[in-house]
Every structure is written in structure tokens, then in C-alpha cells.
Amino acid sequence: MPSYPDDYELVTLAGAFEEEPHTLQAYLDRGGYTAVAKVLEGGMARDEVIAEVKASGLRGRGGAGFPTGLKWSFMPPAEGGQPQYLACNADEAEPGTFKDRDIMRYNPHQLVEGMIIGGYAIGATVGYIYIRGEFWEPYVRVQRAIDEAYAAGYLGRDLFDSGVDFDLHIHRGAGAYIAGEETAMLESIEGKKALPRFKPPFPANYGIFGRPTTVNNVETLASVPPIINRGGQWFLELGTPKSGGTKIFSVSGHVAWPGNYEVPMGTPFAELLELAGGVRDGNRLKAVIPGGPSVPMVPAETILETRLDYEALGEAGTMLGAGSVIVMDETTCIVRAVERLAKFFFHESCGQCTPCREGSGWLHRVIHRIENGAGRLEDLDTLLHVGSRIEGHTICAFGEAEVAPVASSIEHFREEYEAHIHGKGCPMAASGRVSRRVAEAG
């Protein structure tokens, strides 16, 4: 089991097992809204808040991993009474990711407090929480938290008699994966179709309604109050020098206890796997996707020697992403799994960029052909060639995301593709080793 510092605490899912952890009173009992009071009543300057977040090493927890304090510093000073915005990305559409919805279900006030502090730091007076439309319970909990915060004077005008205003609204999306891309999300908030924008200009210069905007993830913003209360150095030392703090990993797939696990950055994957009860049924580990399907999968022998932080996973040939760890055991048919992922990306492409719109269909159809016994050896080169024509040729990173599981699976499990081609079908299904769930899903 991992060993934690004596003063370690779960900073984002704290109180998740209380009877009503989502209420204002429960949050106040845990020291809620003391961080924003420290900022506003204590007279912390905006630059001081940003400096503390920079010192924490907090990086975006939504997938990109960009330093949060640095991102905040890109916002220009507010001028002329014109609005600036803070937007919270709560779309959480990455398959295998389910951490943000639990924060919103069990600890919504910490998100609200983080947004107030973030809004003050960047000079924003209005915030939007863009929440996935299917998240009914999280939506209800967050809206209730916002209502409670307004009633208690934590939102609205002249907060803590500081002269600072901050209003917060929820905007519900309609379930499009692409709306998780920050500029597509801004388009959706404006009432338009969720299509990614060309960058530059970046949101810090041209965001919601053409005004400066910062976009952060739920987990990122919920990490801000404890950073302010206990200091950036405290948070940094929980993790590694370049990947500070804790991270919630959503562990799913072939483990005994799927769920959310908040651990220090830099925790060895083997320890996280142990926390999740190990590989189910005593089976051997085969492969892991450590950050959701938009990052490359890695074989068991690599991931078992890897620590969970941005740098170590990069050295292993993959990325931390959103921290959605999908575990696959020896009964998994890699080709069938990738075929399902390719179908997902094909369905979710917004269609704006020709390489992605057409290429995603090519990837899915060729892998589907291999999985169903009609594949050819040259198909593997075709998949890699098509992928190379998608990567780097799209407005947003969706192109790289859809190529990642295909290219990485061919790199690490090429022999399994070749076995499908030579045997005209899935050899694991023929041998009875493929899991029942995977077989039924095919």
C-alpha cells in the first residue's frame, strides 16, 4: 500500500462518505469557504493568488496538463467595466473517466469556492460550469450548491465586503464528446454548435462572447481551496517536483474494485492497481490505457514499472490525460477493444476537419474488417498511413486522440492483428480465452 505524509488529506473527495456531504453545512464543518475568506478578507492581491497556485505545481486535471497558475497569468487586466469569464469544463466525456461527476455529487461547494477564487485571480466576475446534460444528479447537486452559496453571501455582489463581485451559472450541454474541447465548449455556451475554434486567438484573448476567458477542469478548480489554505509548497510536496499534488484516477476495466482513487502524483502504477484490488479473477495484466482512450495504450511490462505522473508516463510512451485508467487482462482481444474505440471516435467526430471526418471512418472500417476475418496484412500499414495523415492536420487534438489507440496497439500488439488476419478471425474467441463481456460486446 502507498505510504502518505502524516498531514496528507484527500483534497477533492473529502467527506464523500458522509450522509449528506454535498450540503453547505457539511462543507462548512470541513472548513469550507475559509480559503476564499483568506483571499478576500485577508486582502490577498490577485498576483499573490496566482503565485501560490504556480508554486503548488498544479497542472490541468482535464487532460492537457498545462500549469494552472501560468494559464491564469495569461489573462489581461480587466478594463472599462467589460466582463471577463471563468469557465469550468464539467463535460467529462472521455470514456473511462468518472472523477468529475463524483466531485460534483459529493463536494460541489469545493468546486464553487475554487471558482470564486479563480475568478478573483483572473479578474473574472462571471463563471460558467459547462456540465454534461446526462449528469442529472451532479447537475442537481451543483445547482443546489450555487443556490446555497448565493443565500449565504458567498456568491453575488461585494463578497466579504471586499468590493469583489462573482456570479456563477450552469450551462448544460447535449452530450457531444467534442464539447469537451475548450473552444468547442465556448461555442456551445454561446448557443452555437460545439465546433472547435482556430487558435490563435486563444480564449485568454478571445473567449466567451469575444471576451477574455480561462477554462479549467472540475478537479483543477476543486484543488484550489486547499492550496490557498495550506500553501502551494504543501500541495507541491504531496506529488513530485514537476507534477505537484494529488490526482484522482478513475480505475475501470478488469480490476476487482473499480472506482475513483485519489493518490499523490508519482504513485507507482503497481500500487494503484493494488488499491483497486488487483487484476480480477487472478488473471494476468495485459495492457493499460492510463489516461483514457485518447492516449496511447501500453503493455503490462511497461506500465508495471511506471510511476503515475506526467513525466514518467511520457517516458513510457503515453500520457496521463484525464487519469482514466482502463485495465485490460489477458482475456482481452486487443483488436476488438480498439475496434470499439475507433467506432466511438468515428461517431463523435464533429466533421469540421476533412482529415478527421474521413479518416476516422477509414480507421474504423479497416479495423472492423480485420476483426471480422476479412483483413489483409497491408491493412496494418494502411492504418498507420491514414493515422499519419490525420495527426497534425486538424483544428483540435481530436485527430491525435483517435489515432492514439490504433497506432499504439499496432506497435505493441502487432502479432495479435496478424493472428486475426492469418486466422481469419479472433484467435482468442476461438480458444475460449476472450472474456464473456468482450465476446457479447462484439
Write the layout of secondary structure elements.
Elements: H1 24-29, H2 34-40, H3 46-56, H4 68-73, E1 85-90, H5 99-106, H6 108-122, E2 126-131, H7 136-151, E3 156-159, E4 164-172, H8 182-189, E5 213-217, H9 218-222, H10 224-230, H11 232-238, E6 246-253, E7 259-264, E8 267-268, H12 269-275, E9 285-289, E10 298-299, H13 300-303, E11 307-308, H14 310-315, E12 324-329, H15 334-348, H16 354-371, H17 378-390, H18 398-423, H19 427-431, H20 436-441
Parallel strand pairs: 1-2, 1-5, 2-4, 6-12
Antiparallel strand pairs: 3-4, 6-7, 8-11, 9-10, 9-12
Helix pairs in contact: 2-10, 3-6, 3-11, 5-6, 5-7, 10-11, 15-16, 15-18, 16-17, 16-18, 17-18
State the helical fraction: 40-55%
Number of strands: 12
CATH architectural name of the largest domain: 3-Layer(aba) Sandwich
Instruction: Give the percentage of residues in beta strands.
Output: 5-15%
CATH class of the largest domain: Alpha Beta
What structural class is derived from the secondary structure elements?
alpha/beta
Summed over residues and divided by their number, the pLDDT gives a mean of: 91
Distance between the termini: 36 Å
CATH H-level superfamily title of the largest domain = NADH-ubiquinone oxidoreductase 51kDa subunit
Order of strands side by side in the largest beta sheet? Answer: 3-4-2-1-5
Number of helices: 20
